[in-house]
TrEMBL record:
It comes from the Bacteria. HAMAP family: AhpD. It catalyses: N(6)-[(R)-dihydrolipoyl]-L-lysyl-[lipoyl-carrier protein] + a hydroperoxide = N(6)-[(R)-lipoyl]-L-lysyl-[lipoyl-carrier protein] + an alcohol + H2O. The gene is ahpD. It comes from Kaistia terrae. Residues 94-175 form the Carboxymuconolactone decarboxylase-like domain. This is Alkyl hydroperoxide reductase AhpD.
Length: 175
């Protein structure tokens, strides 16, 4: 399924979602690698196979295989980290925040792509997964790298739009 087919499958009750999805490919705030990597990472994080497949098909011609793999790595590692760090942040017992995570996260230190791009993808996935501790951490790394706020905001906007596409399709299926 292409992104155009994905747009056409969004029901009329979610017209705004369809219009927002239309803006992603033409976004000029982000580099092509950032933009298409976000599509892949957020598509995976949406946990919707239709959205994931359409966005990966859209992105694949624009990304080198190593970049595509790095975007998938961002979604995968954040799936683990977001659960763990959301738990340690939200649980009342502060003891867990002092314990070592004991989770392998080597890809964060050596993602195989520009560190800023990987951090943008990780931030966006963390937003979808609702991990405030991870969002704070990735946003701080991006700010330390002098990434402008509009770039950071754009990555989270991509996450919001892509997640809303998945929810809209699921709502239409349930109807």
């Amino acid at each position: 399924m292409s992104i155009d087919q994905l747009k056409s499958s969004i029901p009329d009750f979610a017209k705004d979602v369809r219009l927002n999805l239309s803006t992603l490919a033409s976004d000029e705030t982000l580099t092509p690698q950032q933009k298409y990597g976000l599509m892949v990472a957020c598509g995976i994080a949406s946990r919707n196979p239709v959205v994931k497949a359409a966005l990966e098909a859209e992105a694949a011609p624009h990304l080198e295989p190593a970049v595509l793999a790095a975007a998938k790595s961002a979604a995968s590692i954040m799936a683990m980290n977001n659960v763990y760090y959301r738990f340690s942040h939200l649980v009342s017992n502060p003891e867990y925040r002092t314990m070592p995570a004991k989770l392998r996260m080597n890809v964060i230190g050596n993602p195989g792509v520009d560190k800023v791009d990987f951090e943008l993808w990780s931030l966006a996935v963390s937003a979808i997964n609702g991990c405030g501790m991870c969002m704070d951490s990735h946003e701080a790394v991006l700010k330390k790298a002098n990434v402008p706020s509009d770039i950071i905001q754009a990555s989270v906007r991509f996450a919001a739009i892509i997640q809303s596409v998945a929810v809209s399709l699921e709502a239409a299926e349930a109807a």
